[in-house]
Amino acid sequence: MSIQFDYYYGREAEQFAFYQVPKFLFKDERFKKLSSDAKILYGIMLDRMSLSVKNRWFDEHNRVYIYYATASIMEDLGCAKEKCTKVVSELKEIGLIEKKRQGLGKPDKIFVKNFISVESGTGDCLQHPEVRKSNFKDTENPTSGSSMGKTAESGKSNTNNTEKNNTDSNDTESNLIVCESDEMREDVIYGQIIKENIAYDDLLTVYPQEEAAIEGIYDLILDTVISQSDEIIVASSKYPADLVKSKFLKLNYSHVEYVLECLQKNTSAVKNMKKYLLAALFNAPSTMDSYYRAQVNHDMPQFAQNRKYPKD
């Protein structure tokens, strides 16, 4: 017998936090054999990395790791130990996670790998870890020309179009992602991911009058994610670049919609639109829920009066 749950009304559907599983895991051929449970677990592990950043859980090479006990995984996935072991093994075998034992009863360190790059390869997509630190070559035509321009806060990325380079796939100086015969830069890969995360095309369809603002928000997110700066200034405060990038890669359709709504309702003059948007996007995940919850609470008495309940 099913439980008779109520419907969502108005903005109620937007008041919850969600785990995000990258669409890449469902669309890229390399991950087709991964089970749904493995993909969900990877999404949960990505979410737990934000806690690692706050706690400064980095190894001697500045690589982020998490702690995730088997018992906790079993509880989160609602499965027995045998299935838990199988799901974790899937992620280990494909290379999306790496576990390092500490011994002496200490929990294992789990390194969650970057799903869009590998350190060495045999024809698959390659991106050297140093790509984050390399300088993209300057050219005349910028990749993404936004009406919002580039932000000083997110650093100078200079992610412009370049001519095809003869670059060895394991060259440590490479600033390209090499995929067989095609060459794709970091900004192209992240651009695709960000557009999927925020449902860029859907935003343009629903808000055609906000096309310039949506394009500017997209460019700002991309510029921030591929920034080469160690720190990024948000609302006059400095934050580790990795923390800001992590937040921006978790932005979704609702977050951008919320920022657009804030822009529409803002009545005060905005002197620096780029700085304003950077702060709004950075704070969106933490402020959006409270904002809409307040709206729901304000409208709830009216909902209660207008709704008709079935008779017993």
Provide structural commentary.
With 312 residues, the chain is mostly helical. 43% of the residues lie in helices and 8% in strands. The protein has a two-stranded antiparallel sheet. Strands 3-4 form a two-stranded antiparallel sheet. A two-stranded antiparallel sheet has the order 5-6. The protein is globular, with a radius of gyration of 22 Å. The model is unreliable at 120-184 (pLDDT under 50).
Provide a count of the helices.
10
* Major beta sheet summary: 2 strands, antiparallel
Count of distinct strands: 6
Helix/strand order, N-terminal first: HHHHEEEEHHHEEHHH
Q: Kindly name the structural category.
A: mainly alpha
**Radius of gyration, rounded?**
22 Å
- What is the class of one domain in the CATH system? Mainly Alpha
Ranges where pLDDT stays below 50 over 5 or more residues in a row are 120-184
CATH third-level topology of one domain: Arc Repressor Mutant, subunit A
Instruction: Estimate the helix proportion, in percent.
Output: 40-55%
Overall mean pLDDT stands at 75
Overall shape: it is globular
- Intertermini distance: 18 Å
For this structure, what is the CATH homologous superfamily of one domain?
Winged helix-like DNA-binding domain superfamily/Winged helix DNA-binding domain
Strands of the widest sheet, in order across it, are 1-2
CATH architecture of one domain: Orthogonal Bundle
Proportion of strand residues: 5-15%
